[in-house]
Amino acid sequence: MPSRALRLGLVVVLAGAMVLPFVVTNFRLFQCAQVFIYAIALLGLNILIGYNGQFSLGHSAFYALGAYTTAIMIDQWSVPYGWTIPVAGLLCLIAGFLFGIPALRLEGLYLALATFALALAVPQILKYFEHWTGGSQGIVLSKPAAPKGVPLNPDQWLYFLTLFVLLVLLVLARNLLAGRTGRAIVAIRDNPIAAQAMGVNTALYKSLTFGVSAAYTGIAGALSALVIAFVAPDAFDVFLSITFLSGIVIGGLASISGAIFGALFIQFVPNWAQDISKAAPWAIYGVFLIGFMYVMPRGIAGAVRLGAARWWRRRAEPS
Amino acid sequence: MLKKVLLLMLMTAFGLGMLAPAGAQTVVGVTATEIKIGNTNPYSGPASAYGTIGKVIGAYFKKVNEEGGVNGRKINYITYDDAYSPPKAVEMVRKLVEQDQVAALFQTLGTPTNSAIHKYVNQQKVPHLFVATGATKWNDPQHFPWTMGWQPNYQTEGKIYAQYIMKNFPDAKIGILYQNDDYGKDYRKGLHDGLGEANAKKMIVMEQTYEVTDPTIDSQIVNLKNSGANVFFNVTIPKFAVQAIKKAHDLGWKPAHFLNNVSSSLATVLKPAGVEASRGLITALYMKEITDPQWKSDKGYQDWVAFMKKYYPEGALDDQSNAFGYTVAHAMTQVLKQCGNDLSRENIMKQAASLKNVEFPLLLPGIKVNTSPTDHAPIEQEQLAKFDGERWATFGELYDASKK
Amino acid sequence: MDILIQQVVSGLATGGIYGSVALALVMIYEATDIVNFAQGQMAVVSTYIAWSLLNAGAPYWAAFLATLAISFVGGLLLERIVIRPVEGAPVLTVVIVCIGLLVILNSVLGWIYSYIQKPFPSPFPDRPIRIGNVYFGAHDVGALAITVLVLVALYAFFRFTTLGLAMRAAAQNPASSRLCGIRVGWMLAIGWGLASLIGAVAGMMVAPIVTLDPNMMAGILIYAFASATLGGFTSPGGAVLGGLIVGVIENLVGTYVHFIGTELKLTVALAVILIVLLVRPSGLFGRAAVHRV
Fold this sequence. Notes:
The structure holds three protein chains of three kinds.
Chain A: H1 3-19, H2 26-51, H3 59-77, H4 81-103, H5 108-128, H6 130-133, E1 139-140, H7 154-178, H8 180-190, H9 192-197, H10 202-228, E2 230-231, H11 238-251, H12 256-276, H13 281-295, H14 299-316
Chain B: H1 2-16, E1 34-41, H2 51-66, E2 74-81, H3 86-99, E3 104-106, H4 111-124, E4 128-129, H5 154-168, E5 174-179, H6 182-195, H7 197-203, E6 204-210, H8 218-226, E7 231-235, H9 238-250, E8 256-259, H10 266-273, H11 275-278, E9 282-285, H12 299-311, H13 320-339, H14 345-352, E10 381-387, E11 392-394, E12 399-400
Helix pairs in contact in B: 2-13, 3-4, 5-6, 6-7, 8-9, 9-10, 13-14
Chain C: H1 2-32, H2 39-55, H3 60-83, H4 91-113, E1 129-131, E2 134-136, H5 138-160, H6 162-172, H7 174-179, H8 184-210, H9 216-231, H10 236-256, H11 265-279
Antiparallel strand pairs in C: 1-2
Helix pairs in contact in C: 1-5, 1-6, 1-8, 1-9, 1-10, 2-3, 2-4, 2-8, 2-9, 3-8, 5-6, 5-8, 6-8, 9-10, 10-11
């Protein structure tokens, strides 16, 4: 297996990511931070859908919960923003776990509806509790500056912050999925009855997976509140959930790198689409969506894996 | 290479918000032959109906350029799709400001999207002119000196109806239907404020909301009728306005019916709802309603039609948005004209804040645009009008929110 | 009492809309085993076709029938051209292709017809029917009747015709069906055609109420999805009934649960549906999924 090449590649990418903030414009850094944030959210959703086989159209709700946790803590209680991120994650973990329990009874389409309902309800609920959430006007925040003594501008700082969180969560996800827990999660997807027979506590694992998935997405939401410095209920509608879903399928289900590919797709493809046509940018976006699915029915990560395997096989054959 | 390094430093300076104080700045976005104006609009997503405003503005600037531009400079109009999403709006506006280096932002559309960029553009000291939203917060020159609104805000309009109701319906029992978002709530607040606390408590008998995703509002109308209301304040977008007018008529409910300006189109609201059902509706106008037959021979209207046919033939002639964009593009051109040869951001802002009694072809006769360094609300006048079965018949005096 | 009856009546009218779109969703699910997110948008395309025909001067029922025919063929072609290439791919891949289709159709409609809403005629009289103090919209009653008619036709088709039976077989067990000589690919295509046709009926019945614009079905599809789920995705009758129930619940919650009011009525209606689902995980009238061990 080409693991040495892979590792080398990773080191190069990481080194590049470290140097990047000092060579590109702040605007590009902002876009990168967005990609990192989406990648975290997609990673969370992928753990649930890709690895565990539970369907969700409701992750915009957890994204919103995370974003609002951060926004309200900063706005109402002036909590330092650094603390708000783990709190957002924890809150979403609990919310996701609790939602996961009744969701156990539902499968496939019916689970899709339950989560879809959550996504629909959240903007309404946010508007209802106007006192906390600022109602439909939302909450305006200040963009966090780098800590004293760190010679970085806010965009550079947020770039590193989001990158750091992404890396931590990537490693955690990898460890979680590679181990015993990960095998149980995947076994539930592939054959729930057999998994149960093998002694896996399906109910607990499914709810926990839901919680972890929600926590990832919530952390992404919290970071987005910081980077955008604004939250409003209508920014967290069902479309966001559908965008996330498109992201993980295009990126590649059940694949960690798929989250990053998917994030790149949902961040940049709409921009290309509008560069091609202002008259009907969605039409172009739709063509991209369908085109990607035709060429890579198992997502970008799937295609990359397949391509790499072929390449290595061809190299290995002559020897 | 040196240029790149310089550019990088400039960018960093931008990011830190450490730009040298006004005056020392070079003129951004302007060359001897062109000036860059930036805009965001929803060309995709659920709000794409508004996207036509961004397009008609582009068409108007094309006309201006073909006729020689402004003071010899062509307008380079750069518009991006923000899909009505705040994160995308932030991204696109940063692209306009930091990458494209526009001289000014113009007609960025939507309340949530503009809220998301409000602070940023003021930190960057970029003119943020004539934003396309009816919220009140854009007229706050003390805290946000670089932002300026355009249309009369929703709260003002709500207050106009409140005054009229208090004067003509002292025993009013008011029922309100509003969209559950910033737009609906602003209108509601305007009416409440206009009535005053005591009156509001006494007069408003029921408030109903709907979501923009709701298919119908039948249930709300049934409840409003049942509440015994004899005044109906209808704060709905065109799609629901048609339903509300029709349903009230079908149920035999005949209140004094106040319809928000947003849905005052004859062709797309009143006629589909039925002329009989619509007779007697009252609204507040500041523009000529372009499907109203009374303007057929009006010069402003005819010029607009000729413009549409030549420069934006795919645009709909029954879409008030196209008249809106055309008018506001006039205002932007006027500001640039006034700037003369000094197109620094400071001067653009200064000129935008010194429009004096300017009239534009599609504004109602008598409505004048006025701004000052302490008044960032260009249009503050509105005129009540009643639908007489054929056209909007204006009545009463011109209401002026700035004179209060 | 009048208000209660009036709210139920208007809930049934709105519910009829949900039910008719839910029926199209269930149809395609029965025939192809996927949920087509583009279903609503396809119905809007059909309605625009009808609108264009009517605008060109065609009589209503001629335009109606022509639209049905065009929609059927259009749906069939969509399956053959757009969905076919991903036939063997994972379900979610097909779902994403459907979403792609949705955004393309939406954008193209806006481009051609503009986003400005257009009035759409009803074949039924304009005057409301009044019984006591309760008003019935003639169009609402007519539309509901047509939905039920479609439902009955659909039931008969799947129950009594060879083609209908073959289609069901093809969706539920493609491999065995193929062995029986059923052309599974074509069955799927016909399923799309039929769903598109049912969507066209729904679109033409909905448009007179909500007026026609490219986003007409966006909100309705949400409710249709909820209705189909409540009724059970495997039961066409359940879908229509589910729609009616959702319509009525929503109105009653908005009217009588005062501390909620209209601001949270969607949330509460959804919560009610979820509670029902927790008791009956396959919907009210759906077949319970049986697991093979």
